[in-house]
Request: fold
Amino acid sequence: MKPTPRVVGAVALWLVLEWYGATSEVSWLFLLGAWVAALVVVCAAYAWWNRSGLLLHLSVAAVRRGEGSPVEQLPDSLLAHGPLPEPVFEGDGLDLEVGLDAPRGPRGPAWVSGSVAGRRIQLGVGLVPRTGWRATQSLGAARRGVIGASGWRIGTSDPLAFFAGTRACADGEIALVLPRFASLRERHEARELEASVAAPRSGAGSEMFGVREYRPGDSLRRIHWRSSARHGELVVREYEPPGLRTLAILLDPAPPSTELADQVARLAASEAWDCVMDGGRVALWAPGAEPVNPTRDLWSVLEWLARYPDAASDGSAATSPPRGEEVVVVTASPNVDLIEAAELSRHRRGWVVGDAEVTTDVPLERVGTRWPL
Amino acid sequence: MKAPRLRLPPSPIEHSAEGRALVFSGFAVAVLAIVIYGQDYVVPVIGVAAAGAGNVVSYRERSLKRGFWRQAFLATLVFGALFYVVADSSLALFGGVLPQANFAILLVAITSFDLKTRRNCYSSLWISLAILYLAAVYAWDYTFAVLVAMWAACLAGFWLASHLERIGARLAAPRRALAFAALATLGLGALAFVALPQPAGVPISPLIVSLPNFTSFRGDIESPALPLVQIAGDPAGATKSVDLHFRGRLGDAPVMYVRTGAPAYWRGLVFDTYRGGVWTAGIQGYREMQPYVPPRFLPAAPPDNLGTFVQTYRVLRPLPGVIDAAYPVESLYAPVAALREDAYGTFHTPEALKPGQTYSVVSYLPNLTPAVLRADGTLDRLPDHLRLYLDTGAMSARAAELAAQVTAGAGSYYDRVIALTSYLQRTYAYNLNLPPVPAGRDPVDWFLFDVKTGYCEQFATAETLMLRSLGIPARLVSGYATGDYDPVLNQAVVREHDAHAWVEVWFAHHGWVPVDPTPGVSPLAATQFPSHWAAGGVAKLIPHLTLGVPMAALGSLGVLGALPAALAIAVAVVVAFAWVRRRPWTRRRRPAPGENELLRLYERAQRRMGRRRAPPETPREYCEAMRAGELSELTDAVNEGVYAGRWPTPERVREMASGVPAKSRRRL
Reply:
């Protein structure tokens, strides 16, 4: 807590009152002066009290879907396991909830300031009730990646602003903006054919895949009693069918520009989407990056791609490319490691984003940065 | 080389409507004080109306650029107001009571049309404070404190509104905390006011503009002790003498208010010649002076004086043109055309003092204690100019013999004076209902040997003449006693019955020293040392707080007198019942060590996972649903604590905390 120029004014007022009181011996001037001095002391105590007991709250209040957002395509079962409160894709708008919590009782006045997604925000409030204070700020169309909160500070003072101070809050992530994706089936008939051969997810493997509603004919041993009790209807376990394909997506570790990186992420997400919808598993890999092991969890794939290429840029992880029945390489530059890894696979294909000259026998399709393709 | 322009840093535009309303309210409070205490109505009413309109205009156009012609017009109006104050204060063209206050009111009203920035608002508030200060010249009661508190509340409100506007918040604050802070401020301020000394400084000299003076003093000596001595046919009290044969009636009506740093006698006229029961002033010399008399024109400061103190007088009823003040005077200022100082150090005004008139005097606080005066020594050789003060007139030998007899045992000069003063106080009774002095009788002899009762003139005259018979120079002084002195407000209400007469005795090294032989007061009538601690004054008031009057009032109610006590008991019972009903009687279970820590850690972990545990979800289910293996240890600990009552130690909880995900995914 530091005194503001108003303290100087108040002290000056007190001294003037004392001086006038001393030279005129008008006693109420002394009384007024004493009140002014007492006000400064009380305000210092108030400011010290107000400083403690306030916590910053930053969260996504709502997501405004942009045109062509992939959310429309996502089944409810997939959305139920998505990020909270709901997934954010590039192009979506965000309503940011900024607030303060006062668990120890009402506080105020206070203000918060900081940056979210590069936008400077400052908000103030006179009273922070025990239930907390919230304000909503609309953010524009989000770009892929982390929406970070940085440089946030909580400012507090006494009501008359004699003493004010700020304290820093830790930087953090507000949301992770996932890359957009769309089905690319129509562009790859061969893969579509292969996908149709794959069994739907109702096999009899040993690894538990998930749960679904009971259908006549299902074995009673498969009933998941706890989930059935919670949902009020019979629910059975689903087990992974054997022999599903695994798609390995190999990505350029250092695309030349952000736009190219975005397009690489979109293509990879689209490939993953098609694969997961066909019941397959997806592995992600970029030279030097911590890979994503084969998984059916689309969200973990999208989150990895949302952080791409930051997740791949440190180059510290020395891992070998994942094995898969099929390999798809997505690159924007002629990366030797990437091409060599792709060439090891029998079923391989790839995407080249932009103008990069890539020499390989892997069948490549060249695209620009426009989306959808 | 171009000289740099000296400019204040830019002040932000004040967007707070509430803040502006409070600025206007502060001004209205100050104007209300002028209306109440200055009894001035025209300019204040115009000023408030104009300022109200001006504030509205300023708020609406706060974001617009200032126009040249409006600025020029407002500047012209300011100069017009300046002309008004000069004309009213120097030439009395408009007969305003408070021209300075009126000027300040007009200034605020004019500038309120250009109240754009926060600094402008501050200017308006400070001028309001100046108006309040001007009103304080006339304010002598506790009601004024309410106005001061209202203005201070406006200032604090403006600070609050302006601050909240700056941080972009609505006008709101924690009410209980704010109320507590306000009470703490009032209490702490009052405590500081009572406990801390109030320093006395050198008073501010007024700015005097000397204009051509055609003053003519009317009359000669006028008795300020009106109606101490009433002479038939002269209701104004103008007189050259004090006649002991007559006595006027003294009422309770206030004559003047005195705001003073120390209680004192307000000295007026001095009489040195006594003939046939009548006192007159023998020396007729005068010295004309400006309205402000600086210290250099007045006698040197008394030796070893204790400093100075200020008095401000406000006349409440027509009084003779005599400046009553505590003596010796260091400097004085009276807003009149000129002043005249007589041979006894008393100042006179050209005309009678009118109700509402004020003047200020700075007086020395002489160091007159018995020890100091006893050390003054004996008057060895009488200066020639003091021989006049040894004239006993026609005092009888019997009175002189009594004086010698009373002071026979006293050793020093001072002891003889005090012995005689104490004798008169002890032996004679104070009585205002005295019959007229019988024809042919000397009033002093009649008082000393016949009726043995009298009022202040009898006592003072007898002592003066008896001291003179002992070779001690003395003279009679008239004026007012201190009056009803309020040590908290530092002011005295002087009423008609405070008109008084006492004696001044010459001491070789201290000059004229006041002595009062009237019973019931201190023999040495020196100014009391001022109490610069309000607490000192409050302490003096405490002995006067008795239950006599309230108890008598209650007793007069008879059986109904029990009503207040019954009401108080009823209220106490209701409050106690409410407290008993609201008090939680069940004792809360004391949490086990580590319980609170573990549950807080579990709450924090849920926040960091981005989803809270649903009510029907068990901790184990939650852990599995979140696929958070790092929570398994914490989940087990929670289950064991809740269901088995085995809580981990706080140290163990701290260890577990390191395993909780450190970073939030979507929420800070």
Summary: The two ends of chain A are 56 Å apart (CA to CA). The longest helix of chain A spans residues 27-51. The first strand of chain A starts at residue 2 and ends at 3. Confidence is low (pLDDT under 50) at residues 190-205 of chain A.
